[in-house]
């Protein structure tokens, strides 16, 4: 894999005009944060670079355009979701391509959250014009998938208090059973270690020798297919002769 190119498309939401700016901003921040944290964690400036590109919305349905994106992120409004913390999907295709769909929504809180002191003391004004508070976590989580991370195994799920707020042990937690309602998720050392284990010290940069091996692999595969086709044609000819 080379340094991933992350692409997002501009979009328009007439009912929630702030959505576009906020989501594109969050996406940019998420890419930067993964990159910076990986760089800091490994002390390696070169191996974890990612590029972030934004395209105008008319380009989204232009099937002939060549974008050269490894990870593409789309946004869709989904008011049907009720209480869903991680409201996003990631599809991973062969050759390292992936697509992320972020389903954003206006803030909807569970009864527990609504009855909590913080929210009762908070000014609810303005909330109807914002998107849900967890969208930043959702984007970081989906990015983790796009980079190759799976969900955290149940036994590794835990949390720690930071300034009185419970923080999950990984951004890749999907099972919220038994966790405090006000838990927040961030990219943790656990996630960074998992990625370093996955890619190795060289990060996203694959040494030339591996590219070369890849090409040889494809050539061998192509050769086998040609051979099979050849054998099938030959056996049919024999039968008809
Ligand atoms: Zn997930």
Characterise the protein shown here:
This protein has helices spanning 18-42, 111-114, 117-121, 135-146, 189-199, 208-240, and strands at 5-9, 51-55, 71-77, 88-92, 98-104, 159-162, 165-168. The protein has 241 residues and is of the alpha/beta class. The chain has two domains: 5-199, Collagenase (Catalytic Domain) (3-Layer(aba) Sandwich); 207-241. The strands form two sheets. Strands 2-1-3-5-4 form a five-stranded mixed β-sheet, with helices on one face. A hairpin with a 2-residue loop joins strand 6 (159-162) and strand 7 (165-168). Helix 1 packs across helix 4 (135-146) and helix 1 crosses helix 5. It is globular, with a radius of gyration of 23 Å. It starts with a strand and ends with a helix. Zinc ion binds at residues 86, 141, 145, 151, 174.
Which key features would you list for this structure?
alpha/beta; two-stranded antiparallel ribbon; five-stranded mixed β-sheet; 241 residues; binds zinc ion; 15% strand; Collagenase (Catalytic Domain); 7 strands
């Amino acid at each position: 894999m080379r340094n991933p190119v992350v692409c997002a498309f501009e979009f328009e939401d007439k009912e929630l005009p702030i959505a576009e700016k906020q989501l594109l901003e969050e996406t940019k921040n998420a890419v930067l944060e993964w990159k910076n944290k990986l760089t800091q964690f490994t002390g390696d400036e070169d191996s974890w670079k990612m590029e972030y590109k934004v395209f105008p919305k008319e380009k989204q349905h232009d099937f002939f355009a060549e974008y050269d994106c490894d990870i593409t992120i789309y946004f869709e409004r989904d008011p049907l979701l009720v209480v869903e913390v991680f409201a996003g999907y990631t599809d991973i295709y062969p050759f390292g391509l992936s697509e992320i769909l972020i389903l954003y929504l206006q803030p909807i809180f569970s009864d527990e959250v609504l009855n909590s002191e913080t929210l009762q003391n908070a000014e609810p004004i303005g909330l109807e014009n914002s998107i849900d508070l967890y969208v930043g976590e959702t984007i970081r989580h989906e990015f983790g998938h796009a980079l190759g991370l799976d969900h955290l195994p149940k036994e590794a799920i835990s949390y720690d208090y930071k300034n009185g707020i419970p923080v999950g042990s990984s951004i890749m937690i999907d099972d919220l059973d038994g966790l405090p309602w006000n838990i927040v998720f961030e990219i943790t050392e656990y996630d960074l270690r998992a990625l370093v284990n996955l890619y190795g010290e060289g990060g996203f940069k694959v040494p030339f020798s591996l590219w070369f091996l890849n090409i040889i692999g494809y050539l061998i595969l192509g050769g086998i297919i040609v051979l099979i086709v050849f054998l099938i044609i030959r056996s049919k000819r024999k039968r008809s002769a």
